[in-house]
Structure formats: C-alpha cells, structure tokens
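G., the chain you wanted modeled:
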Amino acid sequence: MGLDPLKPSGRLALFLRRVLGDANQTKRLATAIDCTPKAAENILSGAWPCARHWAALVAAFGRDLTDSVFHPDEAAQRLEQEVRHLEQQLASRRAALRDVAGAVPGRSQALAPVQDRAAVINSPASARERG
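Predicted structure as tokens:
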C-alpha cells in the first residue's frame, strides 16, 4: 500500500525519502536520529514516530520537516519563493559570466550557458550547415 500524502505520517515518510535520497535510506535515517534500523524502516513506511524519534527528527531536519508535515501549503509557497530567488541569482551570475566571457578573446562561446549553446546547435541554420 502506498503512502497517503493527505496524512501527516505519509507526508513525513515522503519528505524523509526525498531528503535522504535513494541509497541506504533506512541506515541514514537511523544514524541521523539515533534509532534502530527497524524504527527507521517503520517511519519510512508511514508509521508515526514516538516522541523521542519525533524530537530527533525535528532537531535533524528542522523547519522544512515540520512545514512539510503540518503546513504543506505554506511550505510550498515558501519553497516557490526560494526557487524564484535562486533563479534570479542564477540569471545574475549568468549575465556576469557573459560579461566576463565577452571580455576574454576566444572564450565567449566556450563559457556561454549550456542552453544557449543548445539553441545554436539545434537552430535551423545550424542544421543546414551540418547537411
């Protein structure tokens, strides 16, 4: 049976699975919150943790965990705002890279962002040149 994202225990397990990655989730969680592998396996399967394990989870994962479990709408809004901010920072750094690359002879194409090079390669004019 799958995890129910409408239940706090399901949201907890889904959050932990995402944060812990694919490899050795049970062992990594057991180490992070100082519990047995069986307790970690149960939490990852959707069982609600005991108070000691819950306190350790909050200490280990903080606000992201509590927001994801108890306030998923607010967590989504906060994360969307963080993503927008990071995208703005990335755009600024790409602009700085283009400025620097343009100042170094022969380096502008080599330092161009990946998607810009892909657009050039996939353009109709480039396809005609390749034959």
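The chain is about 75% helix and 0% strand.

Shout if anything looks off.
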